[in-house]
Specification:
Distance between the termini: 61 Å
Helix content: 25-40%
Largest sheet: 7 strands, antiparallel
Number of strands: 7
Radius of gyration: 16 Å
Length: 162
């Protein structure tokens, strides 16, 4: 049928987590490079930012340093920003990457906590499967959200001590 939407379940990864912090703080941790550089990535990874401009159409150009010493060029372009509810982005190795994938992050209040859902859609089932099997994308995404939760908890503790 012309114009029908293609099913996406076989190209998608969905990861969620409840973070014990207000939505505005969780959203801020996702949108300011001074925060992102402290928690972004799976366990053992660090980042070096080459450029960062958080706005729709803006880009984050950075290197992820793996625990084994491997560097990975990364590039994100934000396509939609609705503070403090939603961020949509395109993520690849560089601008124009044909294998770049789309992610939508939603931030919903859950009492005094925040439910974050990260929905990632790959261009093909093969690229999704490769990300899962070769790069452990599901575990890496969960570790990344765990790092975010730990970082936000640290901010809350520091403010409580002030």
């Amino acid at each position: 049928m012309a114009g029908a939407r293609q099913p996406t379940a076989d190209r998608e990864i969905v990861i969620s987590r409840v973070i014990d912090a207000p939505r505005e703080l969780v959203f801020e941790a996702f949108t300011e490079v001074r925060h992102l550089s402290r928690w972004w990535g799976p366990d053992g990874f660090t980042t070096t930012t080459r450029s960062f401009e958080f706005r729709a159409g803006g880009e984050w150009d950075f290197i992820m340093h793996g625990p084994d010493g491997t560097d990975y060029s990364e590039w994100i372009s934000w396509t939609e920003i609705t503070p403090p509810e939603r961020i949509a982005l395109l993520h690849g190795e560089s601008r124009g990457d044909p294998n770049a994938f789309e992610s939508v992050l939603t931030f919903e209040p859950d009492g005094t906590a925040t439910q974050i859902v990260m929905r990632t859609l790959f261009p093909s089932k093969e690229l999704r499967d490769q990300a899962v099997e070769k790069y452990h994308a599901i575990e890496g995404g969960q570790q990344t959200l765990d790092s975010l939760a730990a970082y936000v908890a640290e901010i809350i503790r520091e403010h409580a001590e002030d």
